[in-house]
Write a structure and sequence with these properties.
29% helix, 313 residues, 14 strands, alpha/beta
């Protein structure tokens, strides 16, 4: 009898279990059973409670700090390798530590490269991720990387708003490429904020390049952390005559005083995905699920069919 390729199995790390359940449901199966044994000192051990020998498995988990999220992913990959899984695909909706993608001053690490090597050493045979902080991080891997764009979620939502005088904005110079891609898809104008940082997460000065008078502005970024940049940019644009300011950011880290800043800012709405669990509710924060996107791509990967249609920017 010819060898029958078994159906894949889907598992999730602790933090991403809710998203994992949504992805599994969209895929059409139950989330696999993983048990975590925990020791008194904080050490833990994942255990697959079902056979995965000879199967393709997908392990879902964002690797944002704390470092436990990354460690869970590494341990689960290693356990799968030692349990003779045929293919081990790390599904990482948010690839954490990606802001350290280069040496921007002496004697600092390139954490994004280090983590890529750790994932490969653990046994990952493929990576599926979304909106990397820097596209070139794909080159840190020697394994296939499917880099998805959340624009496939955000563009339909923005079109549904039917905003007149729409203008896309980048909150910094580094995001100008992303802003231009959105403006091309939406046939809108572009403005860019120029900012100077005193240190990480602290902005010393911000200036606006372009005209936002009587415009409905949409700020576009890959992540929002303390929300300092987004809220300062929104307030600046309203001062310069904008009709409204929204923001779309793929990954809602929302640390520190982020929620308070968003509530007090001139932002009308912040739209994020559920790549990272949102810790608090806010009338200003709208969450679009990326579960269907990942489930579709995972099915295509398993069936060896093209995912080119998912590379829309």
């Amino acid at each position: 009898m010819p060898y029958q390729v078994p159906e894949p199995k889907i598992f999730a790390c602790s933090q991403s279990r809710e998203l994992g359940e949504k992805i599994a449901a969209s895929y059409g199966m139950e989330l696999g059973n993983v048990n975590f044994s925990r020791f008194s000192d904080g050490e833990y051990q994942p255990s697959f409670e079902e056979s995965i020998r000879g199967t393709r498995i997908f392990i879902i988990g964002s690797t944002n700090p704390s470092s436990e999220n990354l460690m869970e992913m590494l341990l689960m990959i290693d356990a799968a390798k030692r349990a003779s899984a045929r293919h081990i695909t790390a599904v990482i909706p948010y690839y954490g530590w990606a802001r350290q993608d280069r040496k921007d001053k002496p004697r600092v690490p390139i954490a994004a490269k280090l983590i890529a090597k750790m994932l490969e050493a653990a046994g990952a045979t493929r990576i599926i991720t979304m909106d990397l902080h820097a596209d070139q991080i794909q080159g840190f891997f020697e394994r296939p990387v499917d880099h998805l764009y959340a624009s496939t979620l955000f563009l339909p939502y923005l079109r549904s708003l039917n905003l007149d005088n729409l203008t896309i904005a980048s909150p910094d110079m580094g995001g100008s490429k992303r802003a231009y891609a959105y403006s091309k898809a939406l046939e809108s104008d572009v403005v860019i904020c120029y900012k100077q940082r005193a240190k990480a997460n602290v902005i010393s000065h911000m200036e606006l390049i372009g005209d936002v008078t009587d415009k409905n502005v949409v700020l576009v970024d890959d992540l929002v952390d303390t929300a300092g940049t987004l809220t300062k940019a929104a307030d600046l644009m309203m001062e310069r005559g904008a009709k409204s300011v929204r923001a779309i950011t793929t990954h809602g880290l929302l640390s520190g005083n982020a929620y308070e800043r968003i509530e007090k800012s001139k932002l009308l709405e912040l739209i994020v995905t559920d790549s990272i669990p949102i810790q608090a509710k806010s009338d200003k924060i709208r969450v679009l699920s990326c579960a269907d996107l990942f489930a579709d791509v995972m099915q295509r990967v398993h069936n060896n069919t093209s995912i080119a249609s998912k590379f829309i920017m």
